């Protein structure tokens, strides 16, 4: 018998290993096994399939050992992995790397075992003495532990000395990195479970006030939490561990060290009853009927229409039928905002999964999903990888959002499309929700592939915000006052909103203080030395930053090219806006929400909490503020530079600009319907601005779909982007040229390029691209993918091309 094993490496294919006779009865697909690759590399791989076909091209090695008693990856998960691998042209190992939490991917860790004679007194150098002492005491150390003991500087010398004296042997083994959290748990002795005995105990301890306080605190915590840890008891009472031990010695407390759950959420409020408005009830009935006929439904609900309540009701139905549900959200930040709402309905059966969790926490979530303890999981695209046993419903909220597409590293999958395939494996239903659906989803509705459910009214009949477009030329009138970003009209609206005790959101899709400096004499702009992009000034660090590679450089005060000191800041980012707002409104409380200010694990939660408690008057942010923020007091939204959204070289530019502006405007007046949105733009006649002003998704779609069809862009074609990277630009150009030449011989497809990427150099790598337009025919698409894989191997095998990176991106965004 043979086993195909997925290894966590970027190998073009799955490797086959021999199954030893004694393992044949035990081995199943989805289990982890220990295998060797090369001379002495150990890996934990996943068994993809078992068969009797011996490979003819290479010598088969045997599996060394089985790690699991039962599969950690189910058959349906393996099918999902295969589809991602095939459709998105990823290596099986890349999919495994993305899908498994770090602690299920075992590491080969070299261990040094002490075999010296303890009766001999060895003559050690000073550096090796500590290592030998540690090894004698512990009998074995890992390589990394030895390095910690002796330091990196002396590590090689010490290792040589230990080997020369023949006191260690080296063992290469695989080790599980996951460690359950262990805590000391305090329980009351069985004799005091009786109420009379407990009352007598309280009386008995009345003469020992500290012990009485400990007992009372224990009683209170056990009612609130159920399980009482020694740490929480110490924190509650400011007592010492010795005082708790004294109660244990008296036979009152029992202290045991146990494995505990890392994921304990705050106690849940009483679940609320769902009461629909007439508009929601109508939409819900339609959704119910349509999902009987179709597997995918597009719920097109305007901003603030209460789509979340419909989701919650559908999830409740799914759970009542004994199945699992997934709620996909585009941003980690959104999960924190929504989780508190969802917990009120679902309590302990709700799991949350995202990359801000520690590795240990992720393993615990994985296990809870696998064992069925979590019936609902909310999270971004990574939530699709969890080991579900019976999915009944997948909801993709804000389905149009670009962050559902994984950019780097591989697999470069789109979570919305992957969710639809995953649902098909379980015969589950999919709801795509959005106020501004993607052109692709609206086209699928038009083609009768998806059901369509409109929800045109805001919750409780609240009015949509009034949108006004301001000519940004009016900034000239306030420049002499030192105001460069806020038009007089926007300033007046902000004054009025603050007087009415309303909150304000200002949107600008750029981080930093000033996107670039410019010499007005010779036109010099400071560039990143690793990437072909201008550096952005950040006031918080007083440095120039590269947003691609992270480089930081000192600010220039004189132009290195012509020597003049006439440098000005062009354009503006969120930091600059924050400063100007504080200058114009000195008494207002201003906060900023962008990638730089939201780096901490709890930064987003803390800021959202401040907004909710009205501790922030004006929020300045990038597109992070667009996504699902729901605060009752936001009365005004300002979009500071609509022109920058409408002038990006991409066929989706109008779609993205429309979605961003419509979504950000939807943050205003969500409760009282008195919201105002002001959009500053120089090109006030742009059609997208008129569609946003009228909240007219239909008019936008009718115009956009004509343009897409005329130029054969998606959804009328499938795109594949091929990226070539190398530190030496001629090598990237040569490899790209070879691929383009081969592709021109392939009939039925359109090839654009090769040419430099929009940002032609990142981290000292030159980037060239080829774009392929394929017809919407799966046979042609599969043939193109097979052709590309063959060509890639052929091109990279040629002399001089071995270090060229060639990346395939199917359905790029």
Structure in words:
The chain has 813 residues and is of the alpha/beta class. 34% of the residues lie in helices and 23% in strands. It is built from 24 helices and 33 strands. The strands form 8 sheets. It has a 7-stranded parallel β-sheet, sandwiched between helices. Strands 19-29-28-20-27-26 form a 6-stranded parallel β-sheet, sandwiched between helices. The chain is globular. The chain starts with a strand and ends with a strand.
Reported for the largest beta sheet, the result is: 7 strands, parallel
- Spans where pLDDT lies below 50 across 5 or more residues: 265-269
**Oligomeric assembly:** single chain
* Outline type: globular
Helix and strand topology:
Blueprint: E1 2-6, E2 15-18, E3 32-37, E4 41-51, E5 65-66, H1 75-87, H2 92-99, E6 107-114, H3 126-138, E7 140-142, H4 143-150, H5 155-164, E8 168-175, E9 181-188, H6 195-204, H7 209-225, E10 228-229, H8 230-237, H9 241-249, E11 253-260, H10 278-293, E12 296-301, H11 307-320, E13 324-328, H12 332-346, E14 350-352, H13 359-370, E15 376-379, E16 391-397, H14 415-426, E17 429-434, H15 439-446, E18 451-455, E19 466-471, H16 488-499, E20 503-507, E21 516-519, E22 536-538, E23 543-545, E24 552-553, E25 567-570, H17 574-584, E26 590-593, H18 603-612, E27 618-621, E28 634-639, H19 642-645, H20 653-665, E29 676-681, H21 687-693, H22 697-710, E30 718-726, H23 729-744, E31 750-762, E32 765-774, H24 778-797, E33 805-810
């Amino acid at each position: 018998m043979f086993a195909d094993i997925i290894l966590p490496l970027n190998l073009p294919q799955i490797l086959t290993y021999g199954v030893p006779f004694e393992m044949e009865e035990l081995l199943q697909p989805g289990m982890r096994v220990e295998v060797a690759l090369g001379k002495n590399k150990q890996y934990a791989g996943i068994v993809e399939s078992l068969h009797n076909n011996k490979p003819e091209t290479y010598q088969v090695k045997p599996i060394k050992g089985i790690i699991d008693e039962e599969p950690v990856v189910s058959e349906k998960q393996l099918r999902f992995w295969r589809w991602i691998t095939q459709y998105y042209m990823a290596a099986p190992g890349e999919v495994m790397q993305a899908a498994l939490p770090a602690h299920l991917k075992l590491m080969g860790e070299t261990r040094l075992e002490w075999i010296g004679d303890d009766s001999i007194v060895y003559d050690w150098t000073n550096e090796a003495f500590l290592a030998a002492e540690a090894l004698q005491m512990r009998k074995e150390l890992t390589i990394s532990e030895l390095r910690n003991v002796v330091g990196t500087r002396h590590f090689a010398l010490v290792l040589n000395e230990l080997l020369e004296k023949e006191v260690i042997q080296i063992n290469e083994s695989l080790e599980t990195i996951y460690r359950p959290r262990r805590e000391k748990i305090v329980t009351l002795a069985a004799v005091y479970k009786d109420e009379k005995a407990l009352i007598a105990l309280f009386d008995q301890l009345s003469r020992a006030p500290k012990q009485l306080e400990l007992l009372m605190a224990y009683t209170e915590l056990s009612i609130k939490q159920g399980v009482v840890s020694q740490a929480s008891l110490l924190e509650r009472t400011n007592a010492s561990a010795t005082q708790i031990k004294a109660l244990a010695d008296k036979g009152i407390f029992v202290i045991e060290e146990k494995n505990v759950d890392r994921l304990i959420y705050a106690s849940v409020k009483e679940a609320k009853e769902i009461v629909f408005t007439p508009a929601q009830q109508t939409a819900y009935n339609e959704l119910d009927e349509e999902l009987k006929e179709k597997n995918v439904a597009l719920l097109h609900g305007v901003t603030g229409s209460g789509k979340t309540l419909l989701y919650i009701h559908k999830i409740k139905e799914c759970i009542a039928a004994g199945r699992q549900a997934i709620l996909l959200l585009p941003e980690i930040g959104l999960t924190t905002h929504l989780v508190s709402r969802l917990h009120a309905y679902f309590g302990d059966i709700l799991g949350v999964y995202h990359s801000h969790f520690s590795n240990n926490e992720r393993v615990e979530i994985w296990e809870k999903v696998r064992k069925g303890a979590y019936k609902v999981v909310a999270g971004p695209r990574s939530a699709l990888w969890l080991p579900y046993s019976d999915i009944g419903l997948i909801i993709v909220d804000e389905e149009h959002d670009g962050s559902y597409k994984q950019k780097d590293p591989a697999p470069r999958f789109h979570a919305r499309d992957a969710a639809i395939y995953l649902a098909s494996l379980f015969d589950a239903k999919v709801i795509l929700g959005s106020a501004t659906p993607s052109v692709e989803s609206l086209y699928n509705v038009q083609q009768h592939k998806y059901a369509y459910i409109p929800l045109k009214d805001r919750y409780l009949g609240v009015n949509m915000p009034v949108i006004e477009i301001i000519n940004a030329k009016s900034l000239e009138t306030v420049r002499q006052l030192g105001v460069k970003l806020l038009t007089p009209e926007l300033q007046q609206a902000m004054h009025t909103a603050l007087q009415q005790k309303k909150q304000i959101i200002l949107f600008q899709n750029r981080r930093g203080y000033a996107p670039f400096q410019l010499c007005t004499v010779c036109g010099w702009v400071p560039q990143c030395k690793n990437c072909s992009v201008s550096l952005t000034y950040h006031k918080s660090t007083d440095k120039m930053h590269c947003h691609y590679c992270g480089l930081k450089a000192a600010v220039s005060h004189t132009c290195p090219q012509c020597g003049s000191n006439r440098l000005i800041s062009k354009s503006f980012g969120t930091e600059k806006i924050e400063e100007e707002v504080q200058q114009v409104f000195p008494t207002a409380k201003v906060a900023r929400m962008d990638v730089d200010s939201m780096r901490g694990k709890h930064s987003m939660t803390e800021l959202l909490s401040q907004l909710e408690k009205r501790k922030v008057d004006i929020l300045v942010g990038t597109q992070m503020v667009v996504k699902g923020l729901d605060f009752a007091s936001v009365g005004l939204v300002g979009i500071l530079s609509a022109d920058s959204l409408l002038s990006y070289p991409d066929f989706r530019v109008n779609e993205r600009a429309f979605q961003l502006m419509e979504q950000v405007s939807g943050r205003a007046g969500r409760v009282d319907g008195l919201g105002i949105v002001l959009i500053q733009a120089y090109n006030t006649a742009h059609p997208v601005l008129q569609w946003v002003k009228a909240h007219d998704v239909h008019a936008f779609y009718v115009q956009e779909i004509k343009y897409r069809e005329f130029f054969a862009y998606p959804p009328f074609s499938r795109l594949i982007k091929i990226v070539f990277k190398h530190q030496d630009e001629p090598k990237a150009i040569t490899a790209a040229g070879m691929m383009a030449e081969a592709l021109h011989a392939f009939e039925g497809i359109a090839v654009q390029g090769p040419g430099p990427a929009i940002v032609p150099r990142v981290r000292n790598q030159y980037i060239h691209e080829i774009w392929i337009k394929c017809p919407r025919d799966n046979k042609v698409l599969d043939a193109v993918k097979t052709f590309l894989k063959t060509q890639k191997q052929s091109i990279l095998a040629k002399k001089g091309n071995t270090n060229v990176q060639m990346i395939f991106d199917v359905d790029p965004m």
